[in-house]
Amino acid sequence: MFFEVRTKRLTVTERNAYKTVKELWLFQVESYTEAEARVTEFMNKQFKGEDFSIPKIQPSKIQRVEKTDGCANEDPFYKVKIELLSKNDKGKVVKDPFFILVRAESPEAAIEVGNGVGDEEAPSSETVSATKTKFTGVVVMTAPKKEPAKPKAEAPKEEE
Hints:
The chain is an alpha/beta fold. It has helices at 32-46, 107-121; strands at 2-12, 18-28, 51-59, 62-67, 77-87, 93-103, 124-132, 135-140. 19% of the residues lie in helices and 46% in strands. The longest helix is centred in the first third of the chain and has 15 residues, at 32-46.
């Protein structure tokens, strides 16, 4: 599940002036509580020594994140709406919205990715739109790996 997280941080510019930076991030987590914990961990690691706040956390409609081949880190993110087409019991066509976030160099490239994803998700689909977003980045954090339990050493047996 993805959550949209707005952050606000106070940074110092090259000219030694304070500047407030507002950013929108997409985090892949399971709950609000985990989102807050992961955002705090991420911000402390990414922006050491800067004060920050989390004014808003909300569930996102985005269900998947993709990128185009050869896209650059400077390329914007596009929210692509795909309608998955199916027939109900009465034979009427039902359109289920499916949203993906695509990092691409243009809306046309994002729509191409949307067409491919639509084909994967349903036998029949239609890419409806690609809208440029204000996302700064996507954060997929993995839970820390637990070390396998070491076998306990047995106490030496006393011989009688």
